[in-house]
Specification:
The protein has about 220 residues and is of the alpha/beta class. The chain folds into two domains: about 1-130, Response regulator (Rossmann fold, 3-Layer(aba) Sandwich); about 140-220, Orthogonal Bundle (Arc Repressor Mutant, subunit A). Helices cover about 50% and strands about 15% of the residues. A six-stranded parallel β-sheet has the order 2-1-3-4-5-6, with helices on both faces. α2 packs parallel to α3 (about 60-70), α4 packs across α6 and α7 packs across α9 (about 185-200). It starts with a strand and ends in a 10-residue tail after the last helix.
Length: about 220
């Protein structure tokens, strides 16, 4: 059973999401919060598996709430769910550990699928947002922000690991990476795990950010 919490300052939205998601046999809604502060209190009482996080909330917004949740409970998955596709918010939420970013126009079926996907370690970003994310991170990588990412770490990776990191930065799944590089699924999984370990990163979302920040995604796949 997947335990889900919902944080949204609009009562109608959080109540409606709670009712609809609760109809899934494999999901249980364990808490509804009107802002980030109330969410953090609920999380300490009943740690969920997944949080649906609105961005623009009073007291503590979704970006800072994501940061606080991931610092205290790194195992909890966060999906940012919002009507706003601001580049800065996309960056902030993913930087602090969100596993996904979806616009509120998403269907309930796709939302439920996204919840299931992040619980198994996957990441999900709304296609409407992906292009904006990559563009924004590419711009940031050309500025002072790039100093936060250790470009020298690329030298520690094998060619295969760099290629995998490159394609993760472009948003490809493991299967798509395997097909693109003519590798087995196991080789991709092992290469991804090795790259994360060498770079000291937590998950493929952070690896994607690193690949964009360091400019690796702009270099193309090595032959």
């Amino acid at each position: 059973m997947i335990k889900v919490m919902i944080a949204d300052d609009q009562e109608l939205i959080r109540e409606s999401l709670g009712i609809v998601l609760g109809q899934n046999e494999d999901m249980k809604v364990t808490g509804l919060a009107k802002d980030g502060q109330e969410l953090l209190t609920l999380v300490e009482k009943h740690v969920p598996d997944v949080i649906l996080m609105d961005i623009r909330m009073p007291v503590i917004d979704g970006v800072q709430a994501t940061r606080a949740v991931k610092e205290r409970h790194p195992e909890v998955k966060v999906i940012v769910l919002t009507t706003f596709d601001d580049d800065e918010y996309v960056y902030g939420a993913l930087k602090y550990g969100a596993s996904g970013y979806l616009l509120k126009g998403v269907t309930m079926q796709d939302l439920a699928a996204a919840i299931r996907k992040v619980t198994t370690g996957g990441a999900i970003i709304n296609p409407d947002v992906t292009v904006k994310v990559v563009k924004f991170f590419s711009q940031m990588a050309q500025g002072s922000f790039a100093a936060e990412a250790d470009a020298a770490g690329a030298d520690e990776l094998t060619r295969t690991e760099r290629n995998i990191a490159n394609l993760v930065g472009h948003g490809l799944s493991n299967k798509e990476i395997a097909d693109r590089l003519a590798l087995s699924g196991g080789t991709v999984r092992n290469g991804l795990s090795s790259a994360l370990s060498k770079l000291g990163l937590r998950d493929r979302t952070q690896l994607a950010l690193w690949a964009v920040q360091t400019g690796l995604v702009q270099k193309g796949v090595e032959s």
